[in-house]
Specification:
Layout: E1 6-12, E2 22-24, E3 31-33, E4 37-43, E5 50-58, E6 63-70, E7 74-80, E8 87-95, E9 98-107, E10 116-120, H1 127-130, E11 141-144, H2 151-157, E12 160-163, E13 168-169, H3 184-201, E14 209-211, E15 213-214, E16 221-222, E17 228-229, H4 234-244, H5 253-260, H6 262-278, E18 283-285, E19 287-288, E20 309-313, H7 325-334, E21 341-345, H8 354-365, E22 371-374, H9 387-398
Parallel strand pairs: 3-9, 10-11, 10-22, 11-12, 13-15, 14-18, 19-20, 20-21, 21-22
Antiparallel strand pairs: 1-7, 2-4, 4-7, 5-6, 5-8, 8-9, 16-17
Length: about 400
C-alpha cells in the first residue's frame, strides 16, 4: 500500500459556496476497476492556503495517506486504480479538523481467459447479473441494450460489456422500409446514435467499444414501374444519379450491383469514424455473417471488412442442415478472413436443448473463432433450457 502513487492534482478555479468540506465522485459511481483513474472532487468553504489530507483505508486496515498543499476552494484529486489492491475502501479527506468521507469498491480488470465468452443477455440488474461472471455462469462479456445502467454489477461480476444494437435492428433503421442505407440522413442518424453511446460510456473501464446493428440490409421498395423489389429503390437511384449523372438502369447490371455493395461498408466507415472521434481506442462492430448470400440486399461475406471485429451470427437449426447450419454459415461467411477476431452467435431459440447447444457451440468453436456467445432467449438467469450446457461450454472454452 505504501507504493501507491497519486497520478496528479489538477486545480480548478472558481468559488465554492459549500458550508462545509465535501468530497464527491464526479463519475457518479462508487465501483471501479484497477485499470481506471479514480477521481475525487473536494470542495471547501473558501479559497485559502492550507493542506488537504487524503486517506484510503481498506477492509483489512491497510492505509494509504497523502498530504497536498491547497489554495483553492475546489481541488480535483486523481488516484491510479492500478496501484490499489481490489477491495472496499473508506475514503476520508481532511482540511484541518474538518473531514468529509465516502466509500469506493475496487475490482480487478483482469479476466481469467482472453477468449470472449459473451452473453447477449437479458439479465436484470442485481442478483441476475452478479451470477454471470467466470465464477458463476462462466461469462466474461455481456451485450446489453441498457446503456450505462448497471455498470457496477458488471464490474462486480467481472464482466466487460458493450451496448448492443445501439442503432437499431432488422434490415432497415427502426424497422421503417423507407430508411435505406443509401440515404445519408439514415446513416448520419445511426452515426449520431453510436457516437452518443460512445460518449456516455467513454469513462467505463470495462467497456471496450460499441456494437452497431443487428441484421442490416438494403431495403426493398417499389421501383418507378410499381414493382416491389431490391432494385430501383428511390433513395438508391437518387444517390446513383447524383454520383454519376446517369440513371441506374442505363448501366450494366454488374456495375450497378457492385456499386450497391458499397453502401453497407460506407455506413460502417461513417459510424466507426463517429465512435473513434469520441475515443480512438474504442472498438466498432456490428452483426454480420447471417446474410452472406444476400447480394441484392447490399450484403456479402466481406460486408464488415472495414471493422476490426467480425461479430456475426448464422443460420439457426430451424432450417437447412439443422445443428450443422450455424457452423456452415460461419465457414462460408468468414471466407478465410482469419486476420481479425470473430465473435460468433451459433444458437438462438429459447427451447434449445442441452445437446443442441453443445453441438452448435462446439462445431463453431472448432473453426478457430476468438469468441462465442449465447442468445437473449437462453438467458441462464431466467431460462433453465440449455443452462447446464451453457455453463459447461463456457467453462471449457474459457480454458
Amino acid at each position: 500500500m505504501k507504493s501507491l502513487l497519486l497520478m496528479g492534482i489538477l486545480a480548478a478555479g472558481g468559488s465554492a459556496f459549500a458550508a462545509e468540506l465535501k468530497v464527491a465522485l464526479p463519475l457518479g459511481r462508487t465501483v471501479y476497476q484497477t485499470n481506471e483513474r479514480i477521481d475525487f472532487v473536494v470542495t471547501r468553504p473558501a479559497a485559502a492556503a492550507g493542506e488537504l489530507k487524503l486517506t484510503l483505508t481498506d477492509a483489512a486496515g491497510s492505509v494509504a495517506a497523502f498530504t497536498f498543499p491547497t489554495a483553492r476552494a475546489v481541488e480535483h484529486l486523481h488516484v491510479n486504480g492500478a496501484l490499489l489492491k481490489p477491495g472496499k475502501y473508506a475514503v476520508e479527506v481532511a482540511d484541518g479538523a474538518t473531514t468529509a468521507k465516502t466509500e469506493i469498491e475496487v475490482f480487478s480488470h483482469i479476466r481469467r481467459s482472453s477468449y470472449k465468452i459473451i452473453n447477449w443477455g437479458t439479465a436484470k440488474a442485481g442478483e441476475e447479473r452478479l451470477k454471470q461472471g467466470e465464477g458463476g455462469f462462466g461469462y466474461n462479456f455481456f451485450y446489453t441494450q441498457e446503456g450505462k445502467d448497471g455498470n457496477g454489477d458488471f464490474i462486480r461480476a467481472g464482466l466487460d460489456w458493450m451496448s448492443v444494437c445501439t442503432m437499431s435492428g432488422a434490415h432497415q433503421m427502426d424497422l421503417r422500409m423507407e430508411c435505406d442505407w443509401s440515404d445519408p440522413y439514415v446513416t448520419r442518424g445511426g452515426t449520431q446514435r453510436v457516437a452518443q453511446r460512445a460518449f456516455q460510456n467513454r469513462s467505463c473501464g470495462n467497456v471496450p467499444g460499441v456494437h452497431f446493428y443487428d441484421e442490416p440490409g438494403l431495403t426493398w421498395w417499389k421501383n418507378p414501374a410499381g414493382e416491389f423489389g431490391p432494385h430501383g429503390v428511390p433513395a438508391q437511384t437518387r444517390s446513383f444519379e447524383a454520383a454519376f449523372d446517369k440513371t441506374w438502369d442505363s448501366v450494366p447490371w454488374a456495375d450497378w450491383a457492385r456499386w450497391k455493395l458499397g453502401f453497407m461498408d460506407a455506413a460502417w466507415k461513417e459510424a466507426q469514424f463517429g465512435v473513434s472521434y469520441v475515443r480512438p481506442d474504442l472498438l466498432s462492430l456490428t452483426q454480420s455473417q447471417y446474410g452472406w448470400s444476400a447480394f441484392t440486399d447490399g450484403y456479402y461475406f466481406n460486408v464488415v471488412r472495414s471493422l476490426p471485429i467480425i461479430s456475426g451470427h448464422g443460420g439457426y437449426h430451424d432450417f437447412g442442415p439443422g445443428y450443422f447450419n450455424p457452423s456452415y454459415f460461419l465457414e462460408i461467411a468468414r471466407a478465410r478472413d482469419l486476420t481479425r477476431d470473430c465473435w460468433y452467435l451459433p444458437t438462438w431459440y429459447g427451447n434449445t436443448t442441452d445437446d443442441e447447444f453443445r453441438l452448435e457451440q462446439y462445431l463453431s468453436f472448432q473453426t478457430g473463432v476468438e469468441g462465442l456467445m449465447s442468445p437473449p432467449p437462453l438467458e441462464p438467469a431466467s431460462n433453465p433450457s440449455a443452462r447446464n450446457a451453457i455453463i459447461e461450454v463456457n467453462k471449457v472454452i474459457g480454458r
